[in-house]
Structures are given as C-alpha cells and as structure tokens.
Amino acid sequence: MTQTERPLGRRERNKAEKRARIRDAAARLFSRHGYEGTTMAQVARDADVAIGTVFQYAATKPELLMMVAAERWREVLDAVVTGLAGRDDPIEAILVLVEPVIKTAEAEPDLSMTTARELLFGAQGPHRTEVAEIVAAVEDAVAGLLRRSGAADRAQSAARLVVSGALLEINRSRTGRADAASVRERVRDLVEVAVRGATAEEGALRA
Fold this sequence. Notes:
Largest sheet: none
Order of helices and strands: HHHHHHHHHH
Distance between the termini: 62 Å
Number of helices: 10
C-alpha cells in the first residue's frame, strides 16, 4: 500500500465525519428553509455538533453554502464530462455542460441564485476557492471543445465568457432583471456568440 493509499487515522476520520454531517445538515436546511431562513445554530443542531465546531469547518454562512456547492458541483462535473464523449458540435456540447446548473436553478432557485452570487461577488474563503477551482475545470472543458473547433488563442477567453455569463444570467433571474423561464434561450444566445467569435477568422473579425 502506497503512502497516498494509507487509511485515515482516527482523528482524520472523526474530522471527515463531522465535516460530512455539517455539510449534509446545511444542504438539508438550505433546501428546506432557503439560504436566508437557515442559521448556523440550526445547522449545528441538525448535525449534532457544537456551533463552534460548525465555525471551525465554515467560518461564515456564505462559506457553509460554498461547502455544500462544492460537493454538488464536483458530482455534476464528473457526470457532465462523461456525457460530453462523442459530441462534436461545440455549441450543443457546451450547453450540455451548463444544463445541470440550469436544472439546479429551476429546482432550488433561491439557493442556486445565492450560490451564483456568492461565487461571483462573495468574499474569499477556502470553500469558495474550492468551488472556483471546479468552475475553472468547467472552463477548461469548454476551452478544450473550442480548441477542437478551431478557436486556438481565443478558446480560454471565450470559455470564461461562457461560464461567467451563464452564472450572471442565473443571477439576473434571481434579481428579477430577467425572466427565469427564458434562461436557456439567453444562455444559448451567449454560447453561440462566444463560439462564433472564438472560431471566426481574424480577418473576419476585423472586417
């Protein structure tokens, strides 16, 4: 057995178990009561830990939300990257990537919009950084699709536009500045503009 495969010690297992209980309790309460209707004290009671323990694992309520989001988004990313196999149309493939985020926003609008807002505009923290790294992995997947379609040097910039734009569109729905029912149409328009711009010839862009 290699060093990386060594089983966790008792202390590490206890910490991992507490972290999972806190994360799962927060996920349940956020889903049941919404972000604003959930308190750190409620999470502590539901997880059967002291409130100080909750703060050890998530120093603020936004960080607690990011802890929940990191777990969900990691699972989504793994499933979506698998689902991209064999898709040649970059627009359709990118829409496959963002569809789980849209579905989550439809199922839990308050929680999803708050997650998008905190990711875009929230304070730095370890769990927010973890979510940002997952988002960066999605950007890399989008950029890879664009490179295969001839985007070359503009692939990464277009990928950032697609991912941040999709999050902004979800946040616009939350604030009432856009119709939630049209989010897929708005995201498709954004993806089409980004893909066509990224794959256009330099001369065509200057013409």
